[in-house]
Amino acid sequence: MSGFSESWLELREPVDHRSRDLGLIRALGAHLEALDGDARVLLDLGCGTGSTCRGLSPFLPDGVEWRLFDKDPALLEAARRRLGPEGPRGARHQFLLGDAGGETPLPLDGVAVVTSSAFFDLCSAGFCARLVRELGQAGAGLYANLTYDGQMSWSIPHELDTAVVRDFNLHQRRDKGFGPALGPQAAPFLSECLKAVGYRVESASSPWRMGPQDKALQIEFLEGMRRPLEEIGTLPRTHVSAWIGFRLGVLDLAESTCEVGHTDLLALGGASA
User: Which UniProt keywords apply (predicted)?
Assistant: First the structure.
């Protein structure tokens, strides 16, 4: 999977935390509350620096065990540094280095729910189908949040917005390390796979809404779009530069906002659960 820098993950964390659907988080917390203490085990795929753990922990019951799983040793070490072995209310943290896209089955023994943030839009249909099979065999649920849904808009429009979003979404379907990525189709695909094996699936919209207070994040987000747009190549590079230049200029002159669509998903009660 394509890597992400610690600085980018830190920059996006505040908007990630305020964007998640609280109803699904509370439902996850209630599910864990109903389990025996030793069974309250979460495996966080692509944990990065531990943002999902930090964001969810205030809503979860006492005694949760987090197994934080990532292939990037630097990010895993950052998670270890920021979280430590123990968290509030008796939470325990383990840090596991591994490749979710590799041949080895995921470490699902004893796991009640697998979690992930901004992850599945990078994954292939084959990976997602395999994960659902493994979840069913382990009797584990899934909480997947902030899966990109292909929608993007700005409070101050530009004539190239539609073409930019189209090309960005095309790039999202390219291989990100798991095979051809599902991109904006990830949440619907996951939902159908999970329902097919007996899971109860709930979903909710969780859009990023970046305002003037998120100017630094908006700048990084815009600059991060340059390479994907140029690699798709539908728009001339001069058009891409002009569009990004316009957006950066608007940030300096006006209170421009940007909304990026995401979907949160909670799946519980599979056939083997």
Answer: Methyltransferase, Transferase
The superfamily CATH assigns to domain 6-154+175-210+259-268 is Vaccinia Virus protein VP39 (3.40.50.150)
Which is it for the CA torsion 225, 229, 231, 237, positive or negative?
negative
Q: What is d(CA 180, CA 109) in angstroms, rounded to the nearest whole number?
A: 28
Q: Give the chain's radius of gyration (CA, Å).
A: 19
Tens digit of pLDDT for each residue in 177-222? 899 999 999 999 999 999 999 999 999 999 999 999 999 999 999 9
Report the pLDDT value the prediction gives residue 89, as an integer from 0 to 100: 87
Q: Return the domain boundaries, the chain.
A: 6-154+175-210+259-268
Place of tokens 């990004």: 244
> Do residues 144 and 120 lie in contact, with contact meaning Cβ atoms separated by under 8 Å?
yes
CA distance 53 to 127: 23
pLDDT tens digits for range 66-79: 999 999 999 999 99
Four-residue CA torsion sign, 40, 46, 48, 51: negative
- Tell me how far apart the alpha carbons of residues 252 and 218 are, in angstroms, rounded to a whole number: 11
Name residues whose C-beta falls within 8 Å of residue 109's C-beta, 6 or more positions apart in sequence: 138
Q: How far apart are CA 152 and CA 169, in angstroms?
A: 10
Q: Cα–Cα distance between 167 and 24 in angstroms, integer?
A: 31
Query: What's the CA gap between 269 and 96, in Å, rounded?
Result: 26
**Structure tokens given for 186:** 């990830």
Please check the confidence at residue 273 and state whether its pLDDT lies above 50: no
Residue carrying structure tokens 């949760």 = 64
